[in-house]
């Protein structure tokens, strides 16, 4: 059970290359929580744990990748193709619907929220450099922040 007298931990997000190249400014003692569906071995080595339930559904990832590839074939640069593909497939709203409809996802969100309430600092991690590309982990961070505010 959550101790109501504890100081909440901080919540942030970053991408794995920023961690690997010391480009990320992370809160001290932050637990690095991967939120990818199919982590590589080197990704596992960069994070403390991975919670694949918080990744977008495989079909949404595949559809977005196909749209991005098609846009790149038309001559659109990598970052613009990625972001345009997000809009084309309605990525953000579909990912949010997944967060709302999956019992496993809700359980994972509740577990992270409890850890944050208990004072643990958490940094959500995936592959995308959000300086130029949109990423689900930012949507997830915002959702977790909203969840924490609603359940205080």
TrEMBL record:
InterPro entries: DUF488-N3a. Residues 29-146 form the DUF488 domain. Pfam families: DUF488-N3a. This is DUF488 domain-containing protein. It comes from Halovivax asiaticus JCM 14624.
